[in-house]
Design brief:
Order of helices and strands: EEEEEEEE
Radius of gyration: 22 Å
Structural class: mainly beta
Number of helices: 0
Helix content: under 10%
Oligomer: single chain
Strand order of the largest sheet: 3-4-5-6
Strand content: 25-35%
Length: 105
């Protein structure tokens, strides 16, 4: 008895649960990925890499926790906010917003 391995032609099933490992009786098994880190699945079937971030400037204090927050004011104005210990800094168009040569906080 021979076993034919099916060819995966798309990822329209997305990421499959570990509980479904070996469930070859399900049609979505052959259209899914076991693990897909940093990928986005499109409804048409392909998988594409998730976008990342780019280093623009050092945070104010590297020893403390800092997070970045995407902010969309309108369809034409989008910002990234650096939120740290007692401050916010703002970035736009791949650069830091500054006032008089110092970061605007």
């Amino acid at each position: 008895m021979s076993f034919v391995t099916p060819v995966i032609t798309n990822f329209s099933g997305g990421e499959i649960s570990p509980y479904l490992d070996g469930r070859t009786d399900l049609a979505s098994y052959f259209h899914s990925a076991r693990e897909a880190e940093n990928f986005l699945f499109l409804p048409q079937g392909p998988a594409e890499r998730r976008g990342g971030t780019r280093f623009i400037a050092e945070v104010k204090t590297s020893a403390k926790k800092t997070i970045i927050i995407p902010f969309e004011f309108s369809t034409e104005q989008t910002y990234v906010i650096e939120a740290g210990d007692g401050y916010f800094r703002f970035f736009r168009n791949q650069g830091r917003i500054e006032t008089g040569g110092a970061p605007y906080e």
